[in-house]
Amino acid sequence: MTQHSQFALLGTRRFLPFFITQLLGAFNDNVFKQGLILAILFRLSLEEDSQSLIDFADRDLLVNLCALLFILPFFLFSALGGQFGEKFAKDRLIRQIKLAEVLIMLLGAAGFLLGSLPLLLATLFAMGTQSALFGPVKYSILPAALEEHELVGGNALVEMGTFLAILAGTIGAGVLLASDSYASLVAGSVVLVAVLGYLASRAIPAAAAGLPGLQLDWNIFRQTWQIMRLGLGQRPAVSRSLVGNSWFWFLGAVYLTQIPAFAKELLHGDESVVTLILAVFSVGIGLGSVLCERMSGHKVEIGLVPFGSAGLSLFGILLWACSSGFPPAAASYDWLSLLGVGQAWWVLGCILGIGMFGGFYIVPLYALIQSRTEEHERARVIAANNILNALFMVAAAIVSILFLSVAELTIPQLFLAISLMNIAVNLYIFKVVPEFTMRFLIWMLSHSMYRVRHENLDVIPDEGAAVLVCNHVSFVDALLIGGAVRRPVRFVMYYKIYNLPVLNFVFRTAGTVPIAGRNEDPQVFEAAFARIARYLEEGEVVCIFPEGKLTTNGEIDEFKAGVERILAANPVPVIPMALQGLWGSFFSRAPHKGLFKRFWSRINLIAGQPLPPDTGRLVLQEQVAQLRGDQR
Fold first, then answer.
1. Are 370 and 140 in contact (CB under 8 A)?
2. How many CB atoms lie within 10 A of CB 270?
3. Is the distance from CB of 227 to CB of 80 less than 8 angstroms?
4. Who is most buried in 245, 248, 260, 359, counting CB within 10 A?
């Protein structure tokens, strides 16, 4: 696999037009939504000739109504968006949705120019509808446009761009509303951005429909129920990823909703402090998202999800601990004077950490949902995810009200409560899908004790059966190979290693095949070959260590005949591989080893060219020896 920066995708036509389209859409949503909220709070109520509802309604009620009007379409129309995303060509559908955005923003511009609150609220509902229809096709087009090894990087750029666009739109709305000519400025801006988004969408390459024969069901309630069943009925890794994804939006909704009051009441800050906190949070999300690709090795690495979850709880708890006793000011702090307070840096560091680990958490989940969902169901599964997101965000508002008003918690105590809830929710997810924990252990091993470099692993096919053969140097060979190969690998290993404490959990979860010698345990021996055959028939990748045991001197022992039996019964390509640098490590059988001997050492994993299934074991042994060379 060619190692490259994810930012190289921004130079490709298959990604850049889509990226700009979704970026401008997120920016425009927030300019209009935040502009409307600020207008309700500070502008429309001051217009003497305004015949708006503000004269008869509480401003806070109207702000909450805005939130309801924007999120309600996600309940009503996400299922329809999922159907559209399956039935119609994705590039054409995006252009039609972006053209609708232009028309909607023309309506919103008229609302601002006329000072008509009913028209503005109707526009907000229409915007929410447009976003609900856009969401499923937005995420389902990525696997069609990107290679599998680009999927994490593409999602990372989308998440980074989305949060930075939200921040820019929020700040931009504040700047526009500060002008006396705010109505014409907001009106012109939202229409201009919508037009630019439509023009960008015209450059998106063709993307075929996933299920063009799908019959549309216009009963939104029945279809919503069916799509929710489809999403939650997926394999556990996908269905629990939907829950984990929505839980992230629960946490995000709590934090983002409480930031203004937190800045004012706890940090004694003004509006600029709110903007500073939003900026730090958004930069954290962007930073975590960008780092995801580098830390995952350009593949969908769900081992980062427990890592992100732990960081979310840790920094949430630290934020609670750092927020008490903040020194008051004679007047409210602005953002610059706040930075002169030492405690503020701890608070901002915690907020940056929450955002960054949120990126580690959410990007692999999105990538997993996309990569493990069938193409003809992908848009509808993402629609189910959007519905769940909306439900969890509503639940976040209810939980916040209960904790703050009924239980009378402080805002920092609310942050503590949701951080502890995060531990409980993700322990449930990791228990139901132990693959998350297994991949985390593998990822930790390959990023802590060893520095693993990969060479020529792109010869392993993305689809279809194959057999990998490799030299056997240490007890953790399987973990290092499993962490390097972008496909799930089914290992065949000596049953006594398979039964080792702690590692056994990893091996069982990964579908490892325990094997014994023919004379040692004939039943285990035959069962192993039967299971290997089943894996290969199902198109899986199987890795075997043909030496049959760990090396005791660092040299490659003679390959046993079992590899020839496997290939004779299952004629699939065989790929030689070699591990370099593990001899002498703590997990090898080298004499005079110590716990820290060769700690953080460089390990190389090298793959050779695929060979035909009739290749003999001695030829395979020679190929592995050549790949390993003199470096044990």
1. yes
2. 18
3. no
4. 359
Q: Which of 128, 132, 166, 158 is nearest to 27 (CA)?
A: 166
Q: What does the CA dihedral 285, 290, 292, 295 come to, rounded to 10 degrees? A: -130
The pair phi, psi for residue 545, each rounded to 5°, is -110, 90
Contact between residue 127 and residue 32 where contact means Cβ atoms under 8 Å apart: yes
Scanning the structure block, which residue is given the tokens 């060619």? 2
> Cα(96)–Cα(547) distance, rounded to whole angstroms?
60
| Tens of pLDDT, residues 37-92 | 778 766 665 444 444 444 444 565 676 677 778 888 888 888 888 888 888 888 89
Q: How far apart are CA 154 and CA 16, in angstroms?
A: 10
Which pair of structure tokens corresponds to residue 512? 């490892």
Please enumerate in sequence order all residues whose Cβ is within 8 A of that of 560, keeping only pairs 6 or more positions apart, or say none.
546, 547, 548, 617
Which structure tokens are listed for 297? 């090795």
**Pick from 630, 478, 491: nearest CA to 554:** 630
Spatial separation of the C-alpha atoms in residues 472 and 418, rounded to whole Å: 46
Three-class DSSP labels, 310-356: HHHHHHHHHHHHHHCCCCCCCCCECHHHHCCCHHHHHHHHHHHHHHH
- Residue 113's SS3 state is helix
Tokens matching residue 446: 């390959």
Determine the length of the chain.
632
Q: Two tokens at 423?
A: 């531990």
For tokens 């990998």, the residue is 468
- Establish how many alpha carbons lie within 13 A of residue 372's alpha carbon, considering only the half-sphere containing its beta carbon: 23
Amino acid at 125: F
What Å distances lie between residue 108 and 29, 524, 555, 602, CA to CA?
Answer: 11, 70, 73, 59
Torsion of CA 449, 621, 2, 466, to 10 degrees: -100
With b meaning 16 or more CB within 10 Å and e meaning fewer, what string describes 361-386?
bbbbbbbbbbbbbeeebbbbbbbbbb
**For the chain, how long is the longest CA-to-CA vector?**
96
Q: 441: which DSSP letter?
A: H
Give the H or E element holding residue 285: helix 271-296
What's the pLDDT score for residue 119? 92
- For residue 423, the model assigns a pLDDT of 93
Give the tokens for residue 292: 């995801």
Kindly list the averaged pLDDT for each block of 10 residues, start to end, along the chain of length 632: 63 88 91 84 53 49 74 83 84 92 95 89 92 83 78 80 84 82 92 95 86 81 83 82 88 84 84 83 85 69 84 94 84 85 93 92 82 78 84 85 84 93 88 75 70 83 89 85 80 83 76 86 89 91 89 87 90 92 79 58 86 90 89 74
Residues 6+ apart with CB under 8 A from 388: 228, 231, 242, 243, 245, 246
Structure tokens at 47: 């217009």
Q: Which of 380, 352, 29, 18 is nearest to 194 (CA)?
A: 29
Q: Please return the burial class of 16, using the count of CB atoms within 10 Å of its CB with bins 0-12, 13-18 and 19+.
A: middle
